[in-house]
Design goal:
Elements (H helix, E strand, L loop, with lengths): L10 H7 L12 H34 L4 H31 L15 H4 L7 H17 L1 H12 L15 H11 L7 H14 L4 H14 L6 H15 L12 H7 L7 E2 L7 E2 L11 H13 L14 H11 L2 E3 L3 H19 L5 H8 L2 H10 L10 H13 L12 H16 L5 H53 L6 H21 L5 H16 L8 H22 L3 H46 L15 H12 L7 H31 L9 H5 L10 H9 L19 H5 L8 E5 L5 E10 L4 E5 L5 E6 H9 L3 E3 L5 H20 L1
Parallel strand pairs: 2-3
Antiparallel strand pairs: 1-3, 4-5, 4-8, 5-6, 6-7
Helix pairs in contact: 2-3, 2-8, 2-9, 3-7, 5-7, 5-8, 6-9, 6-11, 12-16, 14-15, 14-16, 14-30, 15-18, 17-19, 18-19, 19-20, 19-21, 19-27, 20-21, 20-22, 20-23, 21-22, 23-25
Amino acid sequence: MSESRKVVSLSEKSGARNISASGKPPVLPAAVTMLKDKATAQLLERIKALFGKVDDSLFAMAERAHGQEEQDGLFQALRLLRVERRNIAEHFIQNVSRAFQVRQEEKTESSFASDNLSLVHNDDLEQLVAADTMVANAKRDFAEPLTELCMRLDTLYSVKVYDKNNPLGPDVICDAFVEAIQDLDLFIRARLTLLKKFEQVVMLQLRDFYEFCNQLLVEQGVLPSLREQQRVARQRSAYNGAPHAASAPTGSAGGVEAGSQPVQGGVAATGHFPPGLVPAAAGVTPMPAGDLLSHLGALQSGSHYQGGSAVQLLNVGELLQQRLVDSNQAASLAKVDSDVIKLVEMLFSFILEDRSLATQIKSLLGRLQLPLLKVAIADKSFFSKGGHPARKLLNELADAATGWQAGDNYESDPLYKEISEIVERVLNEFDRDINIFAVLLESLREFIVRERKRAEMLERRVVDEADGRAKTQAARARVAAVMDALVAERDLPQVVQDWLNKVWNNVLFLTCVKEGTESDAWNRDVRTARDLVWSVQAPMPDSRKQLLSLLPVLQERLREGIEALSYNAFEARTLFTGLKEVYRERFALAQQLAEQREREVAEQVAREVRAAKSAEPAPVVADNVADKPVAPVVEQETAADAGPADVTEATVDEIAVTEAVIAEAVVTREVISDTAEDQLPDEPAEVTVEAVQAEPQEVAVPQMEELEQAVAEAEVAAPEQDGLAPLDEDDPHWQMTFRLAQGSWFELKRSEDEQFRCRLAAVIRDIDQFIFVNRNGAKVAEFARLELAHALRSAQLLPLDDGMLFERALQSVIGNVRKKRSEQR
């Protein structure tokens, strides 16, 4: 099985030159050995200079990279080339040296097939064109010194030497370098840059290199008068009117073939060459690029398209065949030109089958096949240069037409008319100056800006309306979550419920809509609602000090909320009055509780004292100790009935503790009374015994962290979804809904008769809603996430590939070539 192709189809030639395993390589003539040593030394110096320029270029490209992935790829390639440059140079020189073991080249049929497009290790067509282009240019530009070198080497080898097996031919040098870098894992842009620099540093400098090689052989006495003999022969040919250059006196057929020049794209048809295109192997010199462009220009100005909106793909080979037959000429195409023609046909075949574009638009774009073919033949960077103006124009035309649909009177549609006018101008005005594509591209962009500005205004209104509706729903859900957490299972006074439901519910809603739940204003208003609930639920009198310090701040926050809502002044006074009454009752309740605790403490102390006294012969304490101050009673009993000597040490300590506790209780009562009088009205509230006994135990009001969690978990009510079945989390269509990019185009099928194209204008995250608009910005559909997943699953909604058209077409061609090649294997 033969080795897979590299960058150019010349790898087969390298394989043909390999030495057979049956014997040792033949000994080279002394002149050839000397030429090999000095030629490879000079090539090695140029390869070393190449890497210095590549370093600078890759580093500059990496600094200007648009994405992290691209930048990482370029820097990785830079590091890899620095490490491997010595190995690459050695491998390159070894490949060139092996080419000096010349064998007779086996003739193979030169035809274009899918395998010929797959001439790169990774089947990348841009590398194919880059390598083929530099080889073709070198053969064209350095034909004379190259022919002389072939003829001189032909006299030194035992086998025929001509352009295809010349050990120093452009194809050998290019193939040797491509093979040397073949196994390197390089970023595609870095690989193309490396090839471009190789062309600049090595391939474009081959004239001096071939002159140097010819001079070495002349010094060795190999055909020293060849150039003079060729000059005389050309003069004699011109004098006799011969159509071809005379052959050299040596009679080298290979030299004649390599040096002959075509006559205006072909030769007059003879019995040997019937009119039309003939295979390259037939011996006819390939048609120069200039003559091929002239033929294509004539075809471009002719009428080759049917009327109406029919989509057509031109067979350029047949058109050229017919044109040559009509002019009674025979000609062949250069290999690189033939490949470009087939490649452009494959690209336009993809474009005309692309379902992302309407049939009428594809018909217009299909008419650009011949102009873009002319661009590709004249400028081989067309395939490798992403920013080429012709490519950019084609991409922008397709992008502008994505989502366009033909109406009843589509020919009057502004976009259709604009694209039609651009195509007509290209067909009528483009010859070889590619600047027209840049001019038309600028005109198209101005038109698109005007069209999209109108559509964007309507689209913005649609999205703002949906977003506002979603924010409203989300805000109400979050406010409801806060309120539910605060009032759940709590018996709040009616006035507090009125504050929460009538006032603070609206305050929180406005703050959520305007500021969001991450703002300081939202946190402040939530805390105010929490403090309001706590102020009427906190246990008394234990929380009296904290409540007293909170009330002024709370009152100020409530007043700010009332002002923010422009609440009715009368109702606001009523709410404040009712709230004030609640607090007055709570402080009165706290005072009653404090007095009750005081009495309980006194009674407990009295009981403990009596118990202590009962153990000793001592006067009995009166039963009404709880109704009188404890300390004076103890003092009277001890003074009247007992002397100091009759009281034990333990009894004295208990009496001291009792006095301290009662004193503290009295002070506490005075503080409560004084403070409550400062905060509340003069008239004390009436608190019944039942109210005192009904004081609730400590109630756990939610902390701010709990409220924040409740807000985060608040769910917006989803719209009705007609009983759609839920999908698994790993369902591909459910997962796709999370990857859809805003601006993506889709084809929506309402029914068999109603189909239209729409664009994803916005994803409303708060309610998981997807808004779709048409080209004019009008809303045509909206889906909840589950509805969208089911629409994708049932093919009701089909995504359209709206990437750059030319790049998608090129990738499709590469993929097809890979598939065909794998099938052939």
